[in-house]
């Protein structure tokens, strides 16, 4: 399967362009960068699968890229750059393996047979990215490590970029990734598609990790740096990859659809002065029409599979929100029905609070308050959307003081300066 | 790949081994589980262990040997036995571990065995 065309990810591969390069060097650098952009995850997956050693595969690949930049300017860019890189990296890994008897024993007969078959393959290299995604989201991997693993191993992002999104220091994130890769290698997590019995749950884990990556990027202080939109684009690219690798899986289509609806609205989330604009007040002309159209198509395709799923349901909710661009109105009853459906099948704190917000926006402030009160107090301590929604509901009911307290709490918990400023501006009104 | 399955059990389960009312059921559950793994041909080694009351812990500090009555870790659950299995990978090991009786009232730990160093 070809890599999806949209938003190719940036990687940690070749260094920036140097004006004093010879033409051969420039061509080599372009070819290497293209291979890195489009194929990083594929190459890592192929190299790591036999030994389950992702870290060694990444190191060997980095060396192969370095070799390419030395050799290709002299010999010319090869017809199949990826195959060249894999061969070079395998040589490095081979040296490592002869010295390491432990890893030698990890290679089962099946893995050896696979390698021989791969070497014989005339057309292109096998795509083992799906197996790599399942490995990153394996139940035995710490849930907090799954999304970062995907961003690093499939997209080649470095720990510094990933760390900011997940609210940890670069050192802590690097440590988390090292531990997770050591676990993959030592605990014996296989590079295989799960059995039919496990498949639904495992697919859910992969999609949840991709969604976690997108959510982390969404919540980043977008005023702070240019990193946040890029990271969101990376997560979107992962979602495209998963949908391309599992085209018959409605939840994969549902997740991609959901992310497209959200990304489509990005241009409207901030006004020209960088101030936060809530969904209800966004200028729908700023929503990216092509993305909405693509999202609608994906949701329809998913629905044809006739299997309910959490991401399809959330995408459907976003679809209703996006219809405001056409009708000028939000169909709150439809949104509420969808939240009821979602909560009945896959309850979550986020969905409960979002449903309460929908009740409030549709005019049922009493119902909204009851729904919020039904959530356990311990769980909402640090959950910002709960307090923001509560503030809104209390304000609608005329409970000024309580609303201000809730709003202040939401402002304190806000990660984004623009959101905080928005909430504070509403205090005292 | 080889994994050791460790079977921690609470005090009351150890007591069932010799208690006339519960002993048959206790041993039948374990024998059934071990038997299934033997039939699948995956068992390398294994044994049930005497309870923590029979454990002795030895420490040597500054050249002095200290012998202590009891297990080395003071925990509510103590090791009741172990099995070493040979399976393709972690997913298979997990599937077998799920069937252990103690998975339901305590836990099963899976630890990969370090292959012997040296040799072919």
Overview of the structural elements:
The complex is a heterodimer of chains A (429) and B (120). Chain A has helices at residues 23-48, 54-75, 81-99, 101-106, 109-120, 129-136, 143-153, 159-165, 170-186, 196-219, 227-245, 250-264, 289-304, 310-322, 324-327, 332-345, 349-361, 365-373, 377-380, 384-396, 400-413, 417-426. With 429 residues, chain A is mainly alpha-helical. Chain A is elongated, with a radius of gyration of 24 Å. Chain A starts with 22 loop residues before the first helix and ends with a helix. Residues 1-16 and 101-113 of chain A have low confidence and may be disordered. The model of chain B has no long low-confidence stretch (mean pLDDT 92). Helices cover 30% and strands 34% of the residues of chain B. In chain B, 14% of the residues are buried. Chain B has 120 residues and is of the alpha+beta class. In chain B, strand 3 and strand 4 form a beta hairpin. The longest helix of chain B is centred in the N-terminal third of the chain and has 17 residues, at 23-39. Chain B has a 4-stranded antiparallel sheet. The chains are: A mainly alpha (429), B alpha+beta (120).
Overall strand count of chain A:
0
Principal-axis shape of chain A: elongated
- Unreliable residue stretches of chain A: 1-16, 101-113
Helix content of chain B: 25-40%
Portion in beta strands of chain B: 25-35%
Oligomeric state of the chains present here = heterodimer
Helix and strand composition category of chain A: mainly alpha
Biggest sheet character of chain A: none
Question: Mean pLDDT of chain B, as a whole number?
Answer: 92
What string gives the helices and strands of chain A in order?
Answer: HHHHHHHHHHHHHHHHHHHHHH
The residue-averaged pLDDT of chain A reads 83
Number of discrete helical segments of chain A: 22
Amino- and carboxy-terminal Cα gap of chain B: 16 Å
**How helix-rich are the residues of chain A, as a percent range?**
55-70%
- How many helical stretches of chain B? 4
Order of helices and strands of chain B: EHHEEEEHHE
Shape estimate of chain B: flat
Distance between the termini of chain A: 56 Å
| Rg over C-alpha atoms of chain A, rounded to the nearest angstrom | 24 Å
Count of DSSP E strands of chain B? 6
